[in-house]
Amino acid sequence: MLYDVVIVGGGPGGLSAALALGRARKRVLLCDSGARRNAAAVHIHNFVTRDGTPPEEFRRIGREQLRTYSNVEVSDVRVESITGERGAFRVELSSGLVEARRILLCTGMIDERLPIEGFRELWGTSIFQCPYCHGWEVQDRRWAYLARAADASHLMPFALQARGWSRDVSVVVADVFDIPQETRDRLKAAGIRLETSPVERLVARDGRLEAALLSDGTTVPMDVLFAHPPQRHVDLVTRLGLALDEAGFVQVDPMKRETSLPGIYAGGDLTTRMQGAVMASAAGVQAAAVLNVELTMELASSGKL
Ligand SMILES: Cc1cc2nc3c(=O)[nH]c(=O)nc-3n(C[C@H](O)[C@H](O)[C@H](O)COP(=O)(O)OP(=O)(O)OC[C@H]3O[C@@H](n4cnc5c(N)ncnc54)[C@H](O)[C@@H]3O)c2cc1C
């Protein structure tokens, strides 16, 4: 079976790309293996018309709207490997082999869990990564930000912006690292507490975060913890050997969204630290539109349309 485009990933990025390509009359296969990045979240926020929608409902609506376009197939399969070249890719699925003229990767990122007792259990319910997504619901509660050595430059901007949502903000750390005096002074001026002994354990009651226990024995009360754990690509992306930027995201041409491998495009979380459902959607649509122009020109000039 030859498709114009195989899209890998059925989150906001892939669904949006499939819609755009479907409406452009391209033959599309959207493959999704299921695990969602925001699986632990109860609602999606900060996506106009979908604010407060459960993630599963978001995907259900996305798939339902794609049913209008008979040229788009949606399949719950894993893409195991991609070989070949621009115009003639061989895509091995968990259900068999297909061919595609172009590939669009919308595979998202995988959040690692930090090795702190309680972190895994509280992720998505009391531990969040984005205040625009979840800050409103917990405004004026006891906030904490979990800073990491590997991400130290984000400590001050994140902690100061958190004050926009709550007067009660603490910074705790996942590991030991130097915090410049200027940062300490600015946090203090903003009324933000800084604890420099690493968090050993998160204490919860009835599934709700109550405090962090630090390695020096201090208990820091908190209702909500913001954290940016390390992220990694799905195996498929790693195996493709695409060029990455200095932060480890897949490098794409900002306009064309083509990766370092000709004919393979990418959009959504896997290409940027600026992550969010609406942004992944926009990137998916952009990739689809640019890819469609290029593919249509090629097909038209070779008499294949
Ligand atoms: C706990 C949590 C809560 C969040 N809440 C919000 C929020 O309220 N608002 C907001 O805007 N953003 C939120 N986000 C961020 C948002 O979820 C992401 O920015 C968004 O989902 C990214 O979309 P995407 O399409 O790039 O990737 P994803 O949504 O991660 O989708 C990628 C898809 O690709 C599939 N996939 C991966 N590899 C393969 C393969 N080999 N074959 C087939 N399929 C594959 C995965 O199964 C997955 O379904 C939240 C994130 C987290 C972690």
Automatic annotation (TrEMBL):
- Is the Flavoprotein keyword given for this protein? yes
Q: What is this protein called?
A: Thioredoxin reductase
For this UniProt record, the keywords arranged alphabetically read as follows: Flavoprotein, Oxidoreductase
- Keyword Oxidoreductase present in the record's keywords: the answer is yes
What is the originating organism of this protein? Labilithrix luteola
Where the record annotates domain FAD/NAD(P)-binding, the positions are 3-284
What GO molecular function annotations does the UniProt record carry, in alphabetical order?
Answer: oxidoreductase activity
